Amino acid sequence: MTTGDPEPISDEARQAIEQELDGLRTERGRVAESLAGVGGDTAGDHADRADELERAERLAHLDTRIRDLTVRLHQADLAGPARTDQVGVGSSVALRFADGSEQTLQVGEVAEALDPTLVTVDSPLGGALLGRRTGDSVHYDTPAGPTTAVIVSIGGRAKGS
Predict the structure, then answer these.
(1) What is the domain range of residue 149?
(2) Could you write out the three-class secondary structure of the chain?
(3) Residue ranges of region Disordered (predicted)?
């Protein structure tokens, strides 16, 4: 459901990405260091060469993930802050559910971690929220059946969140 244009991200998502990048860079340093010690000795056995290949593949995987996250942060910088006039990727949305409870959720592109306050744009609720404004009712499907919520605010916090 993303447009292909740079999308903003929430402060919480930015912090999570930056933490992940720090961990990946640390791990990359360890893996690269372990490979730097590998010489051109052809007397090594197959297990040594398999281990070297595995570490090289891990290094390539780490480089790809670091590049992807760095690009995502750059795109978020280009997009600027999340909108507060209508719901989009990166929005913080306070909702009132049919039972009267209120909760603040973050709208994200993908779930990077198990976060009960994150809804993705490809989920039923996330998709229903996109483009909506404060005061709008959204209708979406749940495993228990169709339900409705009202957008209390965009960019703020609901009571009890």
Answers:
(1) 92-154
(2) CCCCCCCCCCHHHHHHHHHHHHHHHHHHHHHHHHHHCCCCCCCCCHHHHHHHHHHHHHHHHHHHHHHHHHHHHHHHHHHCCCCCCCCCCCCEEEEEECCCCEEEEEEECCCCCCCCCEEECCCHHHHHHCCCCCCCEEEEEECCEEEEEEEEEECCCCCCC
(3) 23-48
